[in-house]
Amino acid sequence: MCAMDPEDIWSCIYGRLVLLRYVYNMTAHLFVVLTVIMVAADVAYAESPDATVVKVSGRALVRQRPDMPPQRLHEGDRLFAGQEISCAQGCNELVISVCNLRVPVYRSKRILSIGCGVPEGTRSGPNRAAIGAVAYPMAAQVVQPERFYVQWKPHATSIRLTLRKYLGKVYWGPQSVDGNRGVYESNSLKALLKRVQKEDSIHLELIFEDGRGAPEDIRFDLISIDDQVRLNKQLEALESESNRVLKAIGRGTAFSNYEMYVEGAKEFEKALAMPEPRTLASTNLAVLTRLAILADYKAYRDQRVKELCKSSKVATASVPCACLNSCQ
């Protein structure tokens, strides 16, 4: 309350008006901020579905959350991670589209956000002509300590392997290995890389010497501890995916997102080799072939890329840039 003293009342009223205007402006600003956040969230939710209903016959249902009542599904409905869909009593058929794959739903399924493969574009590392005998690790790609190994084209001579920090100290080797083996894997070396990972020494060099020319120098990165934690969480979440093809695509996408293209390509090839794509829909095989081509291209598996590009399973309208040698 303002005092009734005539000398003070007008200054009191003015002060109250200033305060009210400040409160009004702050409230309006907060309202605008909240509105923008909500609209942005709604737009993202509306524009980025994790799956879409492409066919439904009968009473198919979706639950937004376990504590919410189910709602009827219709063709064209968008589905998002965390939702539970079902095709049980009163439902004859339910087919959803995930990453352009047609996936039938039997009984129930939880929607996961699995990602949809490797985007087109140039690949990191050297030109193919500059790649020598070593097939793994690949230059400019990322590896995990527990998955580390060295693979090369087998030959009769003995080879020497040395691992060091990029332009820095030697961590391991030189180690003599029978060249006929074609692969070297060691638990002690994996344990060493785990210790190196804790030092944040993620830029490494593998020196490969086979006595038949200049040493081969492969520069690659060790995944950081933080990225490894995030990757493991993504892989763990995919364990609940009941569809084997989608699970492999999700794993391949997760590896590729961290530039582990060799591991990613293996998962996409696994999805392509499964029988489901041949029995579910004719378009599925073309979609999976395209994903495998892009993954193999990023992993420098050029011979496999050529084999898949020649396949009639690749849709003419969406031939990957890797088949046309036009990735930019």
Structure summarized in a few sentences:
The chain is an alpha+beta fold and 328 residues long. 39% of the residues lie in helices and 23% in strands.
Topology:
Elements: H1 6-47, E1 51-58, E2 61-63, E3 71-72, E4 78-79, E5 84-87, E6 91-98, E7 101-104, E8 107-110, E9 134-136, E10 142-143, E11 150-152, E12 158-165, E13 170-178, E14 183-184, H2 187-198, E15 203-209, E16 216-222, H3 225-238, H4 244-257, H5 261-273, H6 276-280, H7 282-298, H8 302-309, H9 321-324
Parallel strand pairs: 10-16
Antiparallel strand pairs: 1-4, 1-6, 2-3, 2-5, 5-8, 6-7, 9-11, 11-14, 12-13, 12-15, 15-16
Helix pairs in contact: 3-4, 4-5, 5-7, 7-8
Output the keywords.
single chain; 328 residues; alpha+beta; 5-stranded mixed sheet; 4-stranded antiparallel sheet; 16 strands; 23% strand; elongated
Description:
Helix content is 39%, strand content 23%. It has four domains: 1-47; 51-110, no CATH class; 145-222; 225-324, Serine Threonine Protein Phosphatase 5, Tetratricopeptide repeat (Alpha Horseshoe), CATH 1.25.40. It is built from nine helices and 16 strands. The protein is α+β, with helices and mostly antiparallel strands and 328 residues long. It has a five-stranded mixed β-sheet with strand order 10-16-15-12-13, covered by helices on one side. It has a four-stranded antiparallel β-sheet with strand order 4-1-6-7.
Strand order of the largest sheet: 10-16-15-12-13
Structural class: alpha+beta
Low-confidence stretches: 30-46
Tell me the count of domains: 4
Distance between the termini: 71 Å
CATH class of the largest domain: Mainly Alpha
> What is the average of the pLDDT values?
80
Rg, Cα atoms, Å: 28 Å
**What is the succession of H and E elements?**
HEEEEEEEEEEEEEEHEEHHHHHHH
Major sheet attributes = 5 strands, mixed
Beta-strand content estimate: 15-25%
CATH architecture of the largest domain: Alpha Horseshoe
What share of residues is helical? 25-40%
Shape: elongated
Number of helices: 9
Q: State the total count of DSSP E strands.
A: 16
CATH names the topology of the largest domain as Serine Threonine Protein Phosphatase 5, Tetratricopeptide repeat
